[in-house]
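Could you join me in thinking about how sequence relates to backbone shape in a protein? We need material for that, and I hope you will provide a protein of your own picking. Once you have written the record down, we can walk along the chain together:

…
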Amino acid sequence: DPVLETERLILRVPSEEDFEAVATFMTSDRTEYLGGVVTDRWQQWRGFLATYGHWALRGYGLFQVTLGDGTRVGRVGILNHGAGLWPEPELGWHLFDGHEGKGYASEAALAVRDWAWRERGVGPLISQVHPDNTASRRLAERLGARVERETTLLGDPALIYRHPDPARSE
């Protein structure tokens, strides 16, 4: 399983031990632009298992992002859901409560974006961001992504941000 390390972070494939942190996130208002709060334990488990399925099908997915001491700070990775649900591979991110504003999301996203291109041949990537999600919009723009078009994602409005083509920066 791939492990990515940055100056402050370790990004690894999730393990069952990560479930409680993810379940807690799923009950928080931080899920506003990710489908909303999920309090049903079975639905939380099913959502958590989808992460494993994504890794099994695609060879990539959401990484669990931790600090060096193992503190779980969020998840960042590449999503490309089948069944016509996603237009193309997406760089996505969410941080757990109390870990925002420290640069973790951008640090992890840059590492994942580079890994996806170099190790999996996936890119250039998109990020689908709700127009009202100003924090994610700012992050996408800090990463060099630019709005390409408007769309809907699972019934909600979304902006498609296009990330820079990694081949052009080599």
